[in-house]
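re: ur question from yesterday

yeah so i grabbed the chain u mentioned. its 51 aa long if i counted rite. heres the sequnce exactly as i have it in my notes:
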Amino acid sequence: MKTGDILIYSCVIIGAGIGLTLDNILPGVLIGLGVGYLLKYALINEKNRDI
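ran it thru and got these C-alpha cells back, copy pasting raw so excuse formatting
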C-alpha cells in the first residue's frame, strides 16, 4: 500500500466519523474522499507523482 493511498483512506474514515456525528454519512465520506485526493496531490512533488 502506498503512502498516498493511506492518506486518502484516513481522510475518508475521518469524513465518515464526522458524517456520523451529523447523522448523514454519505456526504461526509465524499467530502473526505475529495479532501484526501486534494491533500495527496498537494503534498506529493512533481517528481514523485507515482506514489
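noticed a couple things. The two ends are 10 Å apart (CA to CA). also The CA atoms of residues 17 and 40 lie 20 Å apart.
anyway ttyl
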